[in-house]
Amino acid sequence: MNDTGTESGTTAGAPPEPAPALLPQPAPPETSAAPDSTVPPETPAATETPGLGRFLARAAAVTAGLTVAGALLGLVRDQAIAHLFGASGASDAFLIAWTVPEMAATVLIEDGMALLLVPAFSHALARRAAGGGRKEAASAPDADDPVRELISATLPRLFALLSCVAVLLALGAPWVVGVLAPGLSDPGLAVDCTRLTSVTVLTFGLTGYLSAALRAHRSFLPPAGVYVAYNVGIIGTTFALHSLWGVRAAAAGVAVGSVLMILTQLPTFVRLMPGRRRGGGRGPRPASRRRFAGAAPPLLGATVLAPVVIFVVSRQAQVLVERFLASSLPAGAISHLNYAQKVAQMPMVLSLMICTVTFPVIARAMANGDREKARDRVERDLALAGMVVLAGTAMVLGYAPQIVEVLFQRGAFDALDTKATADAMRVYAFGLLGHSLVGALSRPYFAAGRPTWFPVFAMATGLLVTTGAGFALTHRFGVDGIAAANAIGISTAAILLLMGLGTRVVTVRVRAVTLSLVRLAAAAAVAGTAGWLTGPLVSDPLLAVAVGCVLVPVLFLLAGLLFRAPEVVHLLTLTRRRLLHGR
Fold first, then answer.
1. 25/134 same-domain check
2. Is 106 helix (H, G, I), strand (E, B) or coil?
3. pLDDT higher for 442 or 13?
4. On the CB side of 371, how many CA atoms lie within 13 Å of its CA?
């Protein structure tokens, strides 16, 4: 998550251990000099040096910084849409179309593509290392290179497949809108917006492919910057064209921003990827190359692909259930849910930054058969992610009305919209730990690149719970009932994933991890309750949020000490040591 978190995290429930005992340390000194320096992935684990901890710390800090920048621009984007179109039928129509890039981002950028391709590239890099490394490949370009073979076997097929899906989606937009929101007041506007956003199926797919390849090579800066480029494209296009196209301008901005995501990563991808064989590829190909091009790569076969895709779609389908239920509520309900979810989930997004950076480390450890190293990294990631997301949960619980008022209450977004959004935000907050754990726990399940259906079972169970609870609660509680159903369903999936991890993937200490998270949750409850009680005492919402940004973390840390949460104790011990001794 940040410099301190990456280097200082301990295994949940265990005494602090020095970083070298928990992580592979492969980076030579020069590779940790800059966050986007590429640690040579083909370095065997046996020769790894203690540079990886510092490299991961800097990479996590850069990733978190750019993610925060992208999230802030996302808030500016949402503010612009709220200011121009309010919580109205027009904004609801756009948000139905927004379901396409939202689903595509999860499947093709954030989860699905990463869960498939980071292990695939990690295994290809391990094969390259076993075959002699990059230097030998460069001196004998006619020899097979596993990374080049993987790209040539997957990228053209991916491009063709996603192009077809994007075209079919644009043609079938009326049917899609009818399924997603049968009660929408202006389906024609939603159809137009959906056709504009359908291009993201292709552009997000290419973005996710480049991101996975670069992260496997431990180049984190360009992938972290894609959402900055994306939101810049949306904001610029919306303001430039809204007077002519109305809310359709925002949908066009989604298409423009998605192209900028590709351009952000393409130069680095071209520089890092291996070149063509000498002679332009003419002449007979080696037998292994012929086999690879004629069939799906070993780590990307249908038996591996299917559970990943179904898991990711099941996870994102929670949003589809929410919008289906909200489409029958008064106009603006979908918008209230959207704004509440986007703001409430920011702590969850930040908590997963360390998992994003360390996923290639876990995949490489699994590829090398070092399950103990993978287990230690997973436990540290769960503890760190839990600490970050629960601290953010306390802030959301305490200051939701003030946060929403500062961010959105202007133009067509009035005080009633603020109250409805803030109420839903607070309910969503109870599911933030579940969302963070699902994101963190799903990675080790798929890190080995082998077929595994348990995550699908866990997520499908959570989706079933979400759907049942949604139908039971929406009629009585409206938007808040939908948010509660989301929290209940995702928490169910997280519990199942945690319970199944130790017996199916790596033997994590479930009891110790759970105890650490319970103590952190108790600390978050104390800090959140204090914020809830003191927030209304400050009349100015901006000042109240500023006070909360100081009060909530301080109370969270003090309560964590009181409850003896291991991560809080270790963080404060390490901070004191560095302040006293300068190290």
1. no
2. helix
3. 442
4. 10
